[in-house]
Structures are given as C-alpha cells and as structure tokens.
Design goal:
With 224 residues, the chain is an alpha+beta fold. Helices cover 14% and strands 31% of the residues. It contains three helices and 16 strands. The chain has an eight-stranded mixed barrel. Strands 11-10-12 form a three-stranded antiparallel β-sheet, with no helix packed on it. It has a two-stranded parallel sheet with strand order 6-7. Strand 2 and strand 3 form a beta hairpin.
Length: 224
Amino acid sequence: MFQITRVLIFIAFVSSAFSSDNFFTKQFEKNYLKAATKQFVLVVQDKKSISKARVYAYEKLDNKWVQAFPEMPACIGYNGITLNKREGDGMSPAGLFSFGFMFGTAPNPGVKYEYRLVTDNQFWVDDTTSDLYNTWQTGPVSGRWKSAEKLNIKDYKYAVVINYNTENVVRGNGSAIFLHVMTKPSTTGCTSMKEGDLLKVLKWLTPENKPLIIQEPAEFFADK
C-alpha cells in the first residue's frame, strides 16, 4: 500500500490542478489523503543539494486541487531525508504527516491553529531513556530527562509541529520535527522556510481542512 500511495503522490505533484473526476485523483484521495483533507504541503528534496528542498502548497477549490502559492525554497536535514529516521542522524523524515500545534518566540501572527508562546522555560525532550521523549515540556527539569532542545531560539520565531513519531512514540526514532524559520543552510531533521514564506503557509493552514504534509527524497522523482 505504501509504494502505491507514493506513486499517487507523484501524480499530485506533477499536476498543479486536476479534476476530481480523474481516476488517479480518486485513488490518491482514497488511498492516501483523508476524505476531509482539503490542503496539503509537499516538500521535495532538491536533486543537486542534499539539504535543500522545494515546497509546494495545494488546496482543493471547486472540487479541484490547485497550487495555493508559487514554489518556495526550503532546507531539510544536513544528511538529507529518509524513510528510516533515527535520533541524531541529521535527516528529515520522509512520508505523510498531519500538523500539530503551532508555537513561537514571537506573538501569534494570526494563525488558525492552537499557538503556544515560547518562554525561556520550554523544552522538547530528546532523551531516548525518558518517558517524555518527543514531547513539549515546561521546566524545571527535576530529573525528568537528561537532554532536551531549548525552544527559545531564533529558529522557532514561528513554527508548527509535524506529527512525526508523536503518537505511539518509539524512543530513538526521532524527535522535535518541525516546520520552522530558516536561519541556516540545513537543519538537524526539521524543514525550514524563509520567514515570509513560512508565515504565508502557517496562516493558510486551516484545521477544518485536515491539512497534511508530504516529504519525499529527490530519488523518488528521478526518471519520472
């Protein structure tokens, strides 16, 4: 099923607008997207640079999928993108994921999702021995974890949680996967975008539309 749906992702990628009467569109929606999904973000690794990517945003209008914004540049993990994400591997996870809450060190810019304002006391636990692995936590630590990412950093001026390994969490399979502001030429596993582009996407995402994010390595589109 996973390989079939990956093929259907490509069909959506190469067609910026296609009719819901199309056979492949129906299969795409049946096998991959939830029936209620009316928005999705597609992240495609650049073929020439392991840590660069292109972002496409699609929405369903009048029963057709159309591109919401022009192509946008992005950065991914410094070691690329993988279907076998592990903690500390410097890679972004490939696959399809929903979005969680949004957060940032700056005030809510006007998003439709729950927005959490970051202070100097918020962390994302990456300690693989902790029961709190891959969760947002507020200090003090009090021995609850040995390592965690401090969230009060410039990368997280604005961000949204990508729901990778957030349900039925598997320790060691990767943590703290976000879509956030681009400040460096690569990330440690997140996907980052220029602030202006990111804000467009964050404000556009609507919970009622059940948006999803699809991330794929460059080789998936080779020779297509």
